[in-house]
Amino acid sequence: MSTRLTDSEFFKGKRIVVTGVSRGIGRAAAEFFLSNGAEVIGVSKNPVPMRKTKKELAKFGKAVSLITADVGKPATSRRVAAEVKRRWGGLDVLFNCAAVLYRDGCLDQEKEDWLEKTLRVNVLGIHYMIRACLPYLLKGVQPRILNFSSAAAIISGAFERGDHDIASYRVSKLAVNAVTLVYAPRLKGKVSVLSFDPGWIKTEMGGPDAKDEMPEAIRRISDSLKLDWQVTGKFVCGENIYQW
Fold first, then answer.
1. Per residue of the chain (244 residues), what is the pLDDT tens digit?
2. Structural domain total, the chain
3. Is 128 one of the catalytic residues?
4. Which domain range does residue 54 map to?
């Protein structure tokens, strides 16, 4: 799946936007990118973990810029795009990692506003960020968009699994894959657009029973971004690459 380039060879000099940067996979991915020579603009709406993230990433100096804002609001994506323009003028990777997850039965059993809240962050947040950053991605070097999805979005087997405790999340990730499918053909040959599932990882969202640790998620992120640039419109899930 990956090229022969090492992480430091591949990511050195890359200009990367990471959403959901204050915790979990987004936080770990940002440090991984920075440690391998990339520059990062990170965004998250959570002020308390963002303060901690700023302290922890301060060792990377001017290579990192953090914005505390809600990706579910269009103004946030415009703010991020303005920072991309100010700092770089172009963008190589947009890693749409921000997501929320509520657990409580089927759609009819969830709280009334859970689906709306989930779609706003998990789906509209991705769309807003792509739309705002696209002019700068088109100026990037083999630019890539990696949209955070989930195996919960795989339609085949969903009925049999009966995995109905994350209903709004499942709906949102199906929609994320649709966003990837809509953008990919339009941007083919200009920007690679992929959906991506890092696996079931032990994070605040994944929970303590998750199968894999963070290093496995980071390896999969690296491998997915190292795929041939011509690969687009696919769903990278674990070691598998799906074409819908």
1. 444 799 999 999 999 999 999 998 999 999 999 999 999 999 999 999 999 999 999 999 999 999 999 999 999 999 999 999 999 999 999 999 999 988 877 888 888 899 999 999 999 999 999 999 999 999 999 999 999 998 777 766 555 555 567 888 889 999 999 999 999 999 999 999 999 988 656 565 555 665 667 788 899 899 999 999 999 999 998 777 877 6
2. 1
3. no
4. 7-242
Whether 223 is in a domain gets the answer yes
Query: Burial level of 209, CB count in 10 A (0-12/13-18/19+)?
Result: exposed
Q: Closest by alpha carbon to 133, among 90, 176, 175?
A: 90
Note whether residue 98 is domain-resident. yes
- Whole-prediction pTM: 0.92
Query: d(Cα 73, Cα 60) in Å, to the nearest integer?
Result: 28
Confirm whether 2 is domain-assigned: no
Q: Is residue 16 part of a domain?
A: yes
List the CATH number of the domain containing 237: 3.40.50.720
**The residue to which tokens 């690679």 are assigned:** 192
From the candidates 136, 169, 183, 242, which is the catalytic residue?
169
